[in-house]
Amino acid sequence: MRVPYTWLLEYLKTEIPAEELAEVLTMGGLEVEEVEEWTSADGEATDQVLLTSVTSNRGDLLSMVGVARHAAALLDCEFEMPDYHIPAIENPNRADADLTQGDSRITIEDHEGCPRYSALRLVGVEVRESPQWMRHRLEAAGVRPINNVVDATNYVLWELGQPLHAFDHKLLVDGHIIVRRAEPGEKLVTIDGVTRELTRDDLVIADPKGPVALAGVMGGTDTEMRDRTKNVLLESAHFNPTMIRRTAQRLGLSTEASYRFERHVDPNLTLPGMARAAKLIEQMAGGDVAGPAMDVRREEFAPRSIEMRPARTNYVLGTELPTDEQVELLERIEFEVKREKLEQPEGLEQAWLRPVPESAQAAERLTVRVPTSRPDIEREIDLIEEIAIIHGYNNIPTTLPVNTSGAGTRTRLQKLEQRASEVMRAAGLCENISYSMMGSRDLDFLCIPEDARERETLCLRDPAAENQELMRTTLLPGLLSAAQRNVHQRVEDVALFEIGRVFIDRGELQLPAEEKRLSAITLGSARTSTWNLPDQYEKMDFFWLKGVIEQLLERLHIKDASFERAEHPSMHPGRTARIIVDGEAVGYIGEAAPDVQKTYDLPEPAVLVEIDFDTLLDHAHLLAQYEPQPRMPAAIRDVALVVNDDEKHTAARLVNVAEQHGGEFLQEVRVFDVYTDAERLGENRKSVAMRLTFRHPERTLRDEEVDEAVNRITNQLRRKLGAEVRTW
Amino acid sequence: MENRLRDMAEAARKALREATSLDELEEARIKYLGRSGLLREIQQGIRDIAEELRPQVGRMINETRNELERLLEKRREALEAGRVHERAGTDRIDVTLPGRAQRVAGRHPLLATLDDMLEIFLGLGYTIAEGPEVETYYYGFEALNYPADHPAMDEQMTFYVTDDMLLRSQTSTVQIRVMERTKPPVRVVVPGRCFRRDTLDATHSHTFHQLEGLCVDEGITFADLKGTLLAFARGMFGEEAQVRFRPDFFPFTEPSAEFAVTCFVCSGEGCRVCSGTGWIELGGAGMVDPNVLEGVGYDTERYTGFAFGVGIERFAMNRYGIPDMRLLYSGDMRLLRQF
Fold first, then answer.
1. Does one domain contain both B182 and B326?
2. Do A598 and A458 belong to one domain?
3. Across the interface, which of B148, B249, B333 has its CB nearest the CB of A55?
4. Are A347 and A472 contained in the same domain?
């Protein structure tokens, strides 16, 4: 809200400069975002304007008087209300909520929506431009001056916080105001010229013919003030915050009035607001108040009484504020306090209550009467907060709590996740963080079939942008788009991974499954430079990234891991593997499918990894157990096998056969060379060289023992896989 | 004769010592120690001296020979070593060519910032909890004491999936989940993603990260909250850092505060980073509202607690001088390779 400084000083008896006042208010719960140097459009007035940002619980600070009252409490200085005189009132607290007075009548049909409707008739006004001082004030506050009557109502809205509306009395059918719900389909042209279609949820001010104003939001054109208006019906009402909010939201129409009603206006402000406006109108537009004012309501709006224990204040704040001081602080914000000594400390005798310096305090109780301008104060804790604010947060001590919880540690899963990230980074992959939203388009780009789990998506009702309507079910779109952006920036080497959540829909009645994934993409080289290096050392190809994943598994102390040919919709049909850990599939690694590569405009086949991270970690171990170094020397034999170069004769299969038949002393089988050479080996044949390591735990193996084992292996390889064997 | 020997020895030593190549050394050897070298010549002259002096002179000659031979050997070794070195010197590489190491990547600046924050709270006895990013209305608002249809909800700019399912707009939701499954004392920090319907620009993002903290126990006070956040600020910015608290409003805390730290760039003088205020706002905090504690079944008379939330993106941006929030989500290798 715009708070002109000189206007504010009318109510606040202080000489504190605007900048300092801004600081005091900010530290006192009313944030001043800026102090603006303001000059009027006609160049004849200047002022400083405090731009305040009011939290949604403090509707009382949305007026000059509210700000002044709060500032006075913070500064501990005098505060003065503006001048008005409440006229004679007719009809307070009548249950029938229908009042006729002279040529005017008010009927409240919806009490929930409108607990109070006060009005006043002014006759013989002369509508014209407001005097300059008024125009300047409104201009400084950011309100466009209209005419002297409307300006008076806006002035009071700013000054006291009470929204008012001035009807041309003559234009109200029978001078009859009816506060009711709108009928479905009823229409109203509001003063901004827009035709509003209304629903049962909207509260309207109507005359017998139909709606004349959207209650608490905006008036209608049919009954608004004209230049020739002579008689005015001045409305000063209290409306239900929730109903006003719903209407304002539904119509996307936020006005100064609705903004205040939503944040609760003091129900006892209707009469002061009306009286103050009447005084200003009489002053600027002439005219007279006709007859007693009308005030329709069913009940009194009495101040609330709250009990509080001064000891509790200190228990919550960690202060040692004596009761006297607490009382003084509450009185500064115009709360009335009654002190009471208790014979027996009530509910405060528990051992855990921190002892207060004056033990008598524990046995005291305050009864606090809270003005109706502060509906946010309902409980003891709310009063404690008020004491803290006026006392000043920065005057509260600074301590560290005693730790009764023990050591703070990361959980096993958190440590494993940290480690996984470290391994990936040590391999040169950078951490990517991408948005959690994606579009169904992204799944199409990835060639994900309609029946895949990735299509079980959660759809946002109000997405932030196009192609961001779904919660992601895979991390690949984020990584592929990042790779594409890098390529477009002429970055050739891309190595990215992300550990993040995906969301699998489980229907409306259940929250989605949130699963962690580890995904990666590589493109180009892993090295800082690659001069003179042959391709296979340079590129982060399938086997490079597979090596990284193997390292990851090793660092997570996963012993039993294997890779088998598999298919994945986004990956190359012949260059993709399923990653299997302890017999359970945990993910895929493969070159991007040619279509995917093309869609993302990648210069060469990127390699992709997608791992179900939660499942992977199920198999991981934080700690490994020491295995003693072998004392006995190993016997090493290299064998070369020439086999058909096809699906059946994979390296894993050859190793597997060797392991099966190698006997108890075979420790390791490792492939160390593979080549094809049609001339030497024949068409579709390949040579696979394996190193066999044998070891006995307690003695040196004899050559014959080793030879026998090697023969067993080669015989089986020959028999099962038709391998030609060469040993050397 | 003795003088001659001494002079010759002196000259030989010098020649051997100063030989700069094996050839020169050989020359010196022939000259002094060779079969018809100077030493030999002197040795032959022994016949001309008195009989009784011969043994003494002979000993001197032998000592000189031994000495010179040792010197010769030493020098030869030195020169030979030099020659190996010299030969290796011709086998040259261009040491200015770039290195060819496997790259190593650093932590993402956002996560590095988060790590540092977590480190501090682990040290203060907090454990790390996580919670769902997609939440029910209950955890998102109701359990956090948001009144239905209240303007406070506008600020959250929440993404909805259905009326009852939403993307959490703050990590505070996890407070409830943690307290539901834990009895006091509670000390947790909750890092995580949050979502708000913000338009993407240099300082706003619909996806962002927060770190939430929660401490509930007997006798936890607002003073404890201040001390904890001061310890946090000093852990992040150094021992000189100060924190400032001013009243704010959150439905789930009372009293509520916004907290700021002295600007780490200008130490409070006022600069561009802190928009001239000397303070950098870090987040919201407060004493957990009794309604929230009651909702999870805690004895609100006995237990009090505080909670706080810190945004991580702006923190990281300030820390590394990253001007645009979108960069953090860009996956740009040129950015990521810097940290």
1. yes
2. yes
3. B249
4. no
CA distance A126 to chain B (A): 39
Nearest residue in A to B200, CA atom: A464
Looking at the domain assignment, is residue A242 inside a domain? Answer: yes
Quick one: pLDDT at residue A343?
65
Instruction: Specify if B76 maps to a domain.
Output: yes
Domain co-membership, B66 together with B11: yes
Same domain, B15 and B78: yes
- Distance linking the first and last C-alpha atoms of chain B: 80
Q: Decide if A398 and B186 are in contact by the 8 Å CB cutoff.
A: no
Mean pLDDT of B266-282: 86
A552 and A701 within one domain: no
Of B165, B246, B289, the CB nearest to A27: B246
Note whether A149 and A223 are same-domain residues: yes
Choose one of A570, A587, A618: the last residue of a domain. A618
Averaged pLDDT, B184-194: 96
B329: nearest CB among A319, A435, A462 = A435
Q: Exposure of A664 by Cβ count < 10 A (0-12 exposed, 13-18 middle, 19+ buried)?
A: exposed
Q: Which helix (H) or strand (E) holds A719?
A: helix A703-721
Determine phi and psi for A123, rounding to 5 degrees.
-115, 150
pTM, two decimals, is 0.87
Q: What is the ipTM of this complex?
A: 0.90
Strands (E), A240-396: 288-297, 304-308, 336-341, 364-370
Q: What is the pLDDT of residues B69-81, one digit of tens each?
A: 898 898 888 888 8
Say which CATH number the domain at B277 has: 3.30.930.10
User: Which residues of chain A make contact with B162, given a CB cutoff of 8 A?
Assistant: 461, 508
Q: What is the pLDDT of residue A344?
A: 58
Q: Which of A266, A297, A328 is the last residue of a domain?
A: A297
Distances (CA, A) of A78 to A20, A72, A325, A332, A413: 17, 6, 19, 10, 60
Q: Are residues B162 and B252 in the same domain?
A: yes
* Helical segments of B221-306, H only: 222-237, 290-295
> For each successive 10 residues of chain A (728 residues), what is the average pLDDT?
96 94 96 95 95 94 96 94 85 78 92 94 95 96 95 97 96 95 95 95 95 96 93 96 93 94 94 95 92 89 94 94 95 94 58 44 84 95 97 96 90 97 97 96 96 96 91 97 96 96 95 98 89 81 96 96 96 96 97 96 95 97 91 92 91 93 94 90 91 93 93 93 79
Find the CATH number of the domain harbouring A69.
3.30.56.10
Output the DSSP codes for A276-298: HHHHHHHHHH--EEEEEEEEEES
Task: Point out the residue among A26, A400, A529 whose CB comes nearest to the CB of B231.
Answer: A400
How near does any CA of chain A get to the CA of B279, in Å? 13
At residue A359, the pLDDT reads 40
Determine the distance in angstroms separating the CA of B162 from the nearest CA of chain A, rounded to an integer: 7
Provide the angle, in degrees to the nearest 10, between the axes of the packed helices A132-141 and A148-160: 50
A260 and chain B in contact, CB less than 8 A: no
- Smallest CA–CA distance, residue A508 to chain B, in Å, is 7
Q: What is the pLDDT of residue A96?
A: 76
Residues spanned by the domain of B169: 109-336
Determine the pLDDT at residue A710.
94
- What pLDDT is recorded for position A20? 96
Of A294 and B43, which is predicted with more confidence? A294
In chain B, count H helices and then E strands: 12, 10
Find which of B332, B334, B335, B337 to mutate to test the A interface (most A CBs within 10 Å of its CB).
B332
In a domain, residue B102? The reply is no
Other CB atoms within 10 A of residue A371 CB? 17
| Cβ neighbours for A2, distance < 8 A, ≥ 6 positions apart | A36, A49, A50, A51, A52, A140, A141, A142
Q: How many domains would you assign to chain B?
A: 2
Whether B104 sits inside 8 A of A428 (CB atoms) is yes
